[in-house]
Amino acid sequence: MTAPLLPLLVVLPFMAAALSVMVRAQSVQRVLLLGTPAAVTVAGVLLLLEHRTETVLAHNVGAFAPGVAIPLVSDSFSALMITVTSFTTLVTMVFLIQTGEDRYRFVPALALLMTAGVNGAFLTGDLFNLFVFIEVMLLPSYALIAVTGTWRRLGIGRLFVVVNLLTSTILLVGVGLVYAAAGTVNLAQLVGRAGEDPAVALAVSVVLLALGIKSGVVPAHGWLPRTYPATSAGVMALFSAVHSKVALYAIYRIYSTTYDGQAAWAPVLAVIVGLTILVGAYSTFGEHIMRRALAWQMISGVGHILLGLALFTEFSLAAGIFYMIHHIITMGALILTSGAIEQTYGSGRYERLAGLARRDPWVAAVYAFALLSLIGLPPSSGFFGKVGLMQASASAGAWQAWTFITIVSVAALGSLIAMQKLWSGVFWGPQMENYRPDSPRTGRGRRVPLPKTVHIGWRLAAPGAFLAVVQLAMFFFAGAIIPIALDASANLTELQPYVEAVLR
Amino acid sequence: VISVLPITIGVLVAGAVYLMLQRGMVRIIFGLALLSHAANLLLLTTGVSAWRGEPLGDRLDPATAADPLPQAFVLTAIVITLAVTVYMLALAVIGHNDDTKRMPETGEFHDR
Q1: Which residues pair with A448 in a beta bridge?
Q2: Is B92 part of the contact surface with chain A (CB cutoff 8 Å)?
Q3: Is the Cβ–Cβ distance between A3 and A57 less than 8 Å?
Q4: Of the candidates A234, A230, A152, which has an alpha carbon nearest to the alpha carbon of residue A442?
Q5: pLDDT tens profile A153-175
Q6: Contact B107/A168, CB-based, under 8 Å?
Q7: Would you call A417 an interface residue with chain B, using a CB distance cutoff of 8 Å?
Q8: A38, A204, A13, A190: which is closest to A117 by C-alpha?
Q9: Residues near A413 by Cβ (< 8 Å), separated by ≥ 6?
Q10: Which of A55, A173, A245, A415 has the fewest CB atoms nearer than 10 Å to its CB?
Q11: Is B6 in CB contact (< 8 Å) with chain A?
Q12: What b/e readout covers A368-400, taking b as 16+ CB neighbours within 10 angstroms?
């Protein structure tokens, strides 16, 4: 009975975005900016509760005949993703308000439009609609990435637009090929089709190629660490929480639905996954700016998440999904805390920052816990994330066990050493003597002596700290979250309820 | 006659790739426009391979009417590409010539 309410998750952010353009009052805009993701988070939790009894909820928009209609489908996997991404979005919005970025023209509307596209991409059961919703998500981000209009962000904005438009076109070509080969783009009607027909398998792999570039897997990862750190920390946190995760969600969904089990090119996927994990982890060494290092860690995280798909057992899918949730929250904590440091001291470079452990001990503690989580040391959500992936590799087969456990451990070691470089550069060492506070005219001002009274404000540090506490809670209450991840992976391996709900 | 569309798509993609490998932003935009035309033609080929009649008037029988779905796909794709092309042209203009020449004087500091 809640199924007809599913379109609201897309419509509500759209309406809020329209309202925020019309009403320029600060209070109204803030209520919309915070209220919409909060409402979506609540809706996601309610959906998760509903999916305990009802496995799949589907609504055919416009009540057309099943198979002709464009369905919106919700199961544990999509509900979990909606809950986690909108929760992280909510925390990021708080950060955007603290830095004052929400006062730039149209930023609330653009951010809300983006969440509409994200929710739609999670819910849709139709490949062409997936393309449309990904475009709805990307169009506002093209503007968000260049929102303050400095030349550096403009140049990066061009790279971002060109890469994403190119991949969107590849995605569109893939969807067209799927329609040509299978005669439908409805996921429920595509179940197992790629496993039977090589032509469909090839067409679906074009779709997956485009989604792979969008999520940043290794041979096509170069755009991500170059574009994301060039925006502000708040916008980067927003992008890291939703963009690559929507692509990864779609890869999980389409791969496990259309191929009957593993694809014929599964060994290629295994190689790509291994390379992504290692290249991301070891490229972090070359960076001297906090958020650039984190962007490389995001690449490594994409590899870890896709490892669940490369192994393709019910348990490995659950481990991959758990890692995805952990990664969204931990990355949010790290990026937002780095943003608080940059906002206060005017730089994110290791050599410009020093001695923050003594100057801002609480921020340093938050950063330390989030770094533990990124590397996978207890107590943190990353510990269970990596344990899950290793356990899944061990139970998948002989060569997978050896290869992937080695790759994950070697990558964790590399990340640990690279992050120690960040830690000793930013948090240890003698006290800083000067800093660059923001100048109202040109953005970043000149270097001036640093007074003793300047510290990172608690309001600025709170969003990142909150996410760090949430990932810590994921360590202590992992017993409550792992069953949800197992439910979500069951949605990907047992497709009968999905088909029945959509084509009923 | 059957091979007209595939050959056109191939030529468009080749031109698009050539233009996108250039340095100037405007050329890249033209390349992306060509690529999107190629994608739209490819979408059309999925529906009109039999060159059936338009679904109007007395030709509503599914056996003889053209498939409307790819045409809806193309329409949506055209709208999206047009919007992004206009936005990219704006980006190409307001960034001065920083894709081909030196960065503009904006009054910001770029020390390392």
Answers
A1: A435
A2: yes
A3: yes
A4: A152
A5: 777 888 899 999 999 999 999 99
A6: no
A7: no
A8: A13
A9: none
A10: A55
A11: no
A12: ebbbbbbbbeeebbbbbbbebbbbbbeebeeeb
